Amino acid sequence: MKIFREKDYDAMSRRAAQVIAAEIAHNPACVLGLATGSTPEGAYKYLVDWYEKGFLSFTDVRSVNLDEYVGLSPDHDQSYRYFMRSNLFDHVDIAPENTRVPDGLAADTTAFCAEYDAYIRSLGYVDLQLLGIGRNGHIGFNEPGDCFVKETHVVDLAESTIDANSRFFATRDDVPKQAISMGIGAIMGAKKVLLCASGEEKADAIYNSVRGPITPKCPGSILQLHPNVVLVADEAALSKLIAAGVVK
Predict the structure, then answer these.
(1) How crowded is the C-beta side of 176, counted as CA atoms within 13 Å?
(2) Cα separation of 212 and 58, whole Å?
(3) Which of 39, 73, 185, 196 satisfies CB 3.0 to 4.6 Å to 150 for a cystine?
(4) Beta strands at 178-181 and 153-156: parallel, antiparallel or unpaired
(5) Assigned fold of 2-243
(6) Tens of pLDDT along 116-145?
(7) Digit-coded pLDDT (tens) for 168-193
(8) Of the residues 138, 142, 153, 165, which is catalytic?
(9) CB neighbours of 106 closer than 8 A, spacing ≥ 6?
(10) What are the DSSP calls for the chain, one per residue?
């Protein structure tokens, strides 16, 4: 695992965007696995800025997103399709037909999840998978549990995840209780994983993912088995690894 220690959120975002931009420069037709939430928002701003300045193009890029809330339409302002349009897709030259986000309104979620996995396999999996991490160690919406779930699946969101996401909704009761999430199999099938984290509240999750036992109780710990992981995090998120002497 390669670890980049950055001073703050902005520096983390810039470094993450550089890793993504380098992937596009190396392979203009790459497949990007994309994430949502506050962690990647800054990286997307850098990518949009560099696109507007003519430094990179998304013309041949294809993307697949990690997850989506069950029950939200693509036009709902808290859906992840809406997030991706607002923060990236509508501001760069990626073709809409080359983007995939799970369908939160799928009538048959079991069939949809199987189709999503089949599509990812048809791409040869993703070239670069961007990940954030939850305070409880979840990646995508793969919550702590008794086993690692390989396939794309419907997840009952943990109370801590609902609490963390309630700031985006009018009330906690408005937060969806389920989500469709890419499974651990597709994440681990990525050729490269870019894990990003910011803030002291992520320090335990980062430490447990990097140095703790490999266990579904901390889904991020599975990344210890991936051959090509880049961790980009600010000093607050790395604080426990720094204290342990793992990161200088």
Answers:
(1) 20
(2) 37
(3) 185
(4) antiparallel
(5) Rossmann fold (3.40.50)
(6) 999 999 999 999 999 999 999 999 999 999
(7) 898 998 889 999 999 999 999 999 99
(8) 138
(9) 112, 180
(10) -EEEEESSHHHHHHHHHHHHHHHHHH-TT-EEEE--SHHHHHHHHHHHHHHHTTS---TT-EEEESEEETT--TTSTTSHHHHHHHHTGGGS---GGGEE---TT-S-HHHHHHHHHHHHHHTTS-SEEEE---TT--BTTB-S-SS---S-EEEEPPHHHHHHHGGGSSSGGGS-SEEEE--HHHHHTSSEEEEEE-SGGGHHHHHHHHHS--BTTBGGGGGGG-S-EEEEEETTTTHHHHHTTS--
Amino acid making up residue 75: D
Is 142 one of the catalytic residues? no
Residue in 65, 87, 136, 165 annotated catalytic = 136
143 a catalytic residue: yes
The token duo for 76 is: 């709902």
The label of the residue with tokens 């305070």 reads 135
Q: What residue ranges do the domains of the chain occupy? A: 2-243
pTM: 0.95
Q: 91 catalytic, yes or no?
A: no
Q: Is 6 a catalytic residue?
A: no
Q: CA-CA distance, 76 to 97, in Å (whole number)?
A: 20
**Which residue's entry shows tokens 């997103």?**
65
d(CA 172, CA 240): 30
- Catalytic pick from 6, 23, 68, 143? 143
